[in-house]
Amino acid sequence: MSFQISINKTKQSRINEFNPDKIEFGKLFTDHMVVCDYKDGKWGNPEIIPFGNIEIPPGLSALHYGQSIFEGLKVFKSNNNDVAVFRAEQNAKRFNKSAHRMAMPDFPEELFVECVHTLVDLDRNWISSAEGASLYIRPFMFATDWTLGIKVSDTYKFMVYGCPAGVYYSHPVKVYIDRYHVRSVRGGVGAAKCAGNYAASLYPAKVAKERGFDQNLWIDAVELKYLEETGTSNVFLRRGKKIYTPALSDSILAGITRDSVIHLLKDMGYEVIEGRISIDDLINWHKEGSLDEMFVTGTAVSVANIQLVGIDNEIYKLDMTQELVAEKVKTELNNIRTLKSPDKYGWVKVVEPKLTAKS
Ligand code: COI
């Protein structure tokens, strides 16, 4: 089936509110957004309209029963003012995996990418080519039936909007391993990018923040001892030329940055081991001095070093003074995303200026 994206351009651009030198993640949104409705068993044609509020009924089933999924991807501007979308096809695939787990309809993958490209073309002036800057794109879908009976919704809304993004963490990250709370369970929805995963993490994350940490480093819910992810990122531990990361499972989100970083690390000559890493492994490697570095990877976060891990009442500090592999891999990733390095992996798609001139 072929779809037609209609465009209703804003009459009042807010671009003068955008200060590339002062970007706060998720505070300012670009001029347009994509909206597409699902009913009678099929998707309608997507519309691009001026960014703004949407009207929802109090009985909206997503609000009550949580059928709601999202994605996050980034778009970069090169020194030539070319606009490059990073691995959107992978986001489209993961979106549909999440949709499947949440009993929601698939969104056509090619249309997902086309919606992103069209929005990005229209709002390309909102992307800064400054170091570390990007446009963060948020596609999402939620159930729109108005019902109080708990059931799979028959209607859905798919939307996409974008916000300028800078560096997510301005300092190396402090993570806390909470031995009691878990983010997701075996057979649960941890591998889906659904709203509920984030809601469930907020209380333990609030407690961790009150104790001075940036994030929880979640552990598995079965044996309560294996490292999983942080909720906004996947985690890596380096011992010399060996780099360990938790193997994917149904309780870990398959990070696209994680996958990209694994490819880059292997090409840089590191051995990447995807497996089980216990809290005791972390403590023992730290005690014997073989834990050289820890870092996290995610779309919003990019690649960020961990400076310390809190476990029980102990703090395990990482040596931040040596040459950090996370820095090297982040630079290489950024060079590919901003078209400074050749993209031998085919990760980057340049959006041709059809709707808005290059600037
Ligand atoms: C992303 O990196 O895209 C995420 O979903 C993290 C978000 C909670 C900021």
Q: Can you tell me the overall shape?
A: globular
- Please identify the top-level CATH class of the largest domain: Alpha Beta
Bound compounds, each kind once, are: 2-OXO-4-methylpentanoic acid
- Named at the architecture level, the CATH assignment of the largest domain is Alpha-Beta Barrel
User: Percent range for helical residues?
Assistant: 10-25%
Q: Report Rg.
A: 21 Å
How many domain regions?
2
Largest sheet entry? 10 strands, mixed
CATH topology of the largest domain: D-amino Acid Aminotransferase, Chain A, domain 2
Number of strands: 18
Quaternary organisation: single chain
Total number of helices = 7
Q: What's the pLDDT, averaged over the residues?
A: 97
The proportion of strand residues reads 25-35%
Could you give the distance between the termini?
35 Å
SS content category = alpha+beta
The sequence of SSEs as H and E is EEEEHEEEHHEEEHEEEHEHEEEHE
- Unreliable spans: none
CATH superfamily label of the largest domain: D-amino Acid Aminotransferase, subunit A, domain 2
